[in-house]
Amino acid sequence: MTARPLAWVASIIYVAVLVAGGYFHLAGLVPASPGRTAGFFALLLTLLGLETAEWLRYRGGTPRPVAIGLLAVRSLLYAAVSTLDPSGFARALFLLIPFAAYFTLGRRASAGIAAALLGLLVLRLPAGWYRDQETLSDLLMFVIGLVFAVSMAAVAARAQAYAGQVERLATVAERNRLARDLHDSLGHHLTAASVQLEKAEAYLHRDEAVSAQAMSDARASVRYALADVRHSVGSLRGGVFSLRAALAELVRSDPSVGLRIDGDEHGYSSASLLALYRVAQEALTNARRHAAASRVTMTLELGRVAGRLEVNDDGRGFEPDGVSGGYGLRGMVERLALVGGGAEVSSRPGAGTTVVATVPSSMVEAMA
User: Fold this and answer.
1) Strand pairing of 296-302 and 353-360?
2) Which are the contacts of 238, defined by CB distance < 8 A and separation ≥ 6?
3) Coil, helix or strand for 359?
């Protein structure tokens, strides 16, 4: 596909030549027969129609063979219009040939076509043209126009390439974000369900009541996973995220988790609040999966300047220097970094683990 950035440039030049040249034709300022004037108008309207037809047919980009064919057709039409226009305004149309060729044939072909056009123009100049001030002025303006046409095409092509690169980077960033969401949300609930199912199996023949409760908790975790997916989809569609409600739902079915929330979340962006929620999920998952904690305490403080989430557990702990960090820890740090926040993890064997995550308020983000 051949993209055509600044497609409106050709149409503007067509209209300018049509108005300026048409005025000279209709006012009798140039020697032109009615048939010649009619042909001048008809060809320019044909060019405008061709431009419109291409835009309607190939909005996502013109196939390269078609683009080359259209470039050849336009070049012939430019030559025909120029022949029918004694006023000389139609010469501006030739500037569009190297401009379009830049996107169709490349930079070198565009520069070569510009040089060829300049050579043809010089060959058609009358004898002694280099001593005529008006002719030299027209030639200079044409050269400047060629330089501007090729330069503008180069800038537009680079902008298009940059836009494509930005789009690719945005796609990668979105893919990484989705990967973090899958790990942080579904991973948490499925881990909880797995733990409860193992508990149900272990107590199946020892204590039916405990086994039944574990099965009920596993079903609840699966429901929470489904609700989390629905909530994420709702957020993508423009829904409002409430960190207070999300944390309350996160710990609702687990009496071993304590929760305290102070402050107002309205001074924070949805991205910052969601980042704190994912940290809470990851910390709780790690406490259940790795630390075998019997008690977890979550404290959320939302101040005017920053929000702070602290998660403490009484699990087995670990040596932070001896842990390279799994995907969950990396995802936690990356997610917080995207909103200007940070995280600290402190622990030691036998003394539990403390995770502290902070994010700036919207006021601080705006000042940054």
Assistant:
1) unpaired
2) none
3) strand
CA distance 194 to 181: 19
Degrees, nearest 5: CA angle 136-141-144:
125
Q: Minimum mean pLDDT among 55-64, 86-95, 100-109: which range?
A: 55-64
3-state secondary structure of 46: helix
Phi, psi of 30 (to 5 degrees): -130, 150
| pLDDT at 117 exceeding the cut of 60 | yes
Q: Which CATH architecture has domain 241-368?
A: 2-Layer Sandwich (3.30)
Percent of the chain whose predicted confidence (pLDDT) is above 70 = 84
Q: Quick one: pLDDT at residue 234?
A: 57
Residue 179 structure tokens: 């990967």
Angle between helices 270-289 and 243-251 (to 10 degrees): 10
Q: Is the pLDDT of residue 144 over 80?
A: yes
**Amino acid at site 314:** D
Give 290's pLDDT tier (boundaries 50, 70, 90): confident
